[in-house]
Design brief:
Its EC number is 1.1.1.45. Belongs to the 3-hydroxyacyl-CoA dehydrogenase family. It holds the Pfam family 3HCDH. The protein is 45% helix and 14% strand. It is of the alpha/beta class. It has 2 domains: 185 residues, 3-Layer(aba) Sandwich (Rossmann fold), CATH 3.40.50; 82 residues, no CATH class. The chain is globular. 29% of the residues are buried.
Amino acid sequence: MSSLKGKIITVVGSGLIGRSWAMVFMSGGYMVNIYDNIPGQASGAITEISRKQIEELQQAKMLRGNLTAAEQLSLLSSHDDLLQALEGAFFVQECVFEDLEAKQTVFHEVENLVTESVILSSSTSCLMPSNVFSRVQNRTRCIISHPVNPPYYVRLVELVPHPETLPAVMDVAYSLMTDVGQAPVRLRKEIDGFALNRVQYAIIAESWRLVQDGVISVKDIDLVMSEGLGMRYAFIGPIETMHLNAPEGKFCFHYACKKIGAVLGAAKKQSVKTSYCFDYIHLT
């Protein structure tokens, strides 16, 4: 990735996510062209970034990267002309509102203005890559880079490939995100909701079910997460938790599945409802 240092990234869309992405990329030393099709919006975004965010972050000693606020801001430029904004870019991060037709239009226009080597990336949080890039002719260089809002403060980025995305494109996106201080995860294929939202929705659904069934109050189910699982999961994930939850040092994920399987088997004989255990038994 050192060979990419100083290269240009174009951010299309100057809203909250676009501004955050611009801040992330320039904190890593990349030149950033921010574009918006509404005249004056991109320049207004730079004013917002410089006066209300970057300088305040530096004063609070929370500025990311090794460059000063002034050095980072010198890497940022605004554009009302798409062709000008795309000039010299090796990576395009689209950040327009969550509308399929709008994103398809953006990538159709961008593809006609860049060379074949430029990577086209979308910030969509829920739209499938195969739909977002359906109007792109060369879909091998297309990828979803889904951030968690706001990207500057929450490092996770989900990298979701189009069915035709080349492995090399995934590698470049992964290296770029790592280089600017994000925490990228690779999805091996596209799926509705990606990974983060599917896990999040499962937690929300079960939490709501427990409240709805009169098992627990809204306040207390929130405490289950904020004072329990959330504190644990801030450091390690669910699979690692199972692996490390070791009685006498012999507990591992495979052992856990076997143990849960035995419990499920005994419960089934006694006609005990065990649906909450999900399908762990099948993992063995």
